[in-house]
Amino acid sequence: MAKQIKIAQAFEPKKIRHFTIQTLNKIGAWAFIFGLILAMVAGFWPLGPAMISTLIVLGLLVGFLNIETHQANNFLFTTLVLVLISSLGGNLLGQITLIGATLNSIFSAIVTFVIPAAIIVALKSVYTLAKEDA
């Protein structure tokens, strides 16, 4: 005989909250994967306003949904390194004869995707720090 669950138990706020957080984490993870793949593919063509907007929105989703307070420092440091390497490496690799422009464009698209996430995480960190001091 199957276990019966009372309707009131199925809709406890704790269970709904857990489901919601788990769902948001999955959405954030897929936004990160899709954004990274899209940034790499978008690098093969000139970045138009629609593509830049899409990458920015996906970056914002990643910043809001994926990174928690205890992960903020690691994420911001990693983002800083990624942006520096992409900027310097993109310019250096941009000098390669056949694929340089494409590599430079790929790095630019990745930076376009990652920077909005970093801004959101940095603002969340500042808010957390200000809230702790108050």
Structural class by helix and strand composition:
mainly alpha
Total helices: the number is 5
Order of secondary-structure elements: HHHHH
How far the N terminus sits from the C terminus, by CA atoms, comes to: 55 Å
Low-confidence stretches: none
Major sheet summary line: none
- Strand % is under 5%
State the helical fraction.
over 70%
**What is the number of E strands?**
0
The domain tally reads: 1
Alpha-carbon Rg, integer: 20 Å
Q: How would you state the average pLDDT, rounded?
A: 81
Gross morphology: globular
Describe this structure in words.
This protein has 134 residues and is mostly helical. The protein has one domain (13-133). The chain contains five helices and no strands. The protein has helices spanning 7-10, 13-42, 49-65, 72-93, 100-133. Helix 2 runs antiparallel to helix 3, helix 3 packs parallel to helix 5 and helix 4 (72-93) runs antiparallel to helix 5 (100-133). It is globular, with a radius of gyration of 20 Å.
Briefly, what is this?
With 134 residues, the protein is mostly helical. It has one domain. The protein is built from five helices and no strands.
List the keywords:
134 residues, mainly alpha, 80% helix, globular
Can you lay out the helices and strands and say which pair or pack?
Blueprint: H1 7-10, H2 13-42, H3 49-65, H4 72-93, H5 100-133
Helix pairs in contact: 2-3, 2-5, 3-5, 4-5
